[in-house]
Amino acid sequence: MMVRMTPASPRRGLSALAAVAALALTASACSSDGSSPAAGSVVTSFYPIQFATQQITGGAVPVTVLTKPGAEPHDLELAPQDIGGMTKARLVIYADGFQPAVDEAVELVDPTKVLDVADAANLTLTSPEEGDDAGEPAPEHDGGDVPDEHDEAAAHDGHDHGADDPHFWLDPSRYGAVAEAISARLSRDDPENASTYARNTARFVEKLSELDDEMRVGLERCRNRQLVTSHAAFGYLAARYGFEQRGITGVSPESEPSAAALKAVGDLVTSAGVTTIYQEALVEPHFAKTVAGSSGARVATLDPIEGITSSSLGADYFEVMRSNLVSLREGQGCS
Ligand SMILES: [Zn+2]
Fold it and tell me: What's the whole-model pTM score?
């Protein structure tokens, strides 16, 4: 029997993680067949990375995911068997800076068996403050498609911004770049299947490109360019399709907005003629309702696709993105 024990906090430090990892290894060594379900598999940190990896491998290798469907990914806690599985995986694929528990556990994994996709994702936006907009483009940003940002950037210069905005998959072009990076790494590690990975990746990237075209055309002519969301997960989507994101709760959906931040968003909703405030499926829509109630706007669903559950508006990334497109076209008044 595995000992089920969830660390009290993902931030307890590496010695605690090492202890639970050792426990997991000992426990699995005692199991009847001596093997672990994660041995030889590719371990992915959360849904978008899992989905891309599955599309690329097409079943050639087992792919597991650390963030179970329906779990809130930002505050993920790892069980000992999760960490044990990571240490025995053929490859661990994650995005550094998104899930602190995964960032810490990766330190226990042989670095030659880890792929961090954050670089490939080209994370040019910083995490917004609560009630702030999508964050400022980093100075090296070279795209012409990001709307001109406000002047408050200087106001944040006094402190460390911390992590970049991690929600790259909501821009299909960034997601495609991540898929290419995953494919290149899988092919290098497993040359026998390289042609399969290349073929599957080409098909996946083509589907992302078609989705990108649909989004661009569908969101070209819209009455309102202010995108008011509860969880500020849509900065890359906003940048790609010409919106300006105003997140109510900040980049982590469980952070609490201040009364001042709520008032600022409420004022914006009124002054900019915003008719729709977006909530997501996984999080209690309490703040979105507060702002909507005081301004007469309605609440609609925009899914950050951090996991797929039975209540998701679609069975996979592509279906949910197309549901998001329908929500956006209606909520932003697009013709
Ligand atoms: Zn998020």
Answer: 0.78
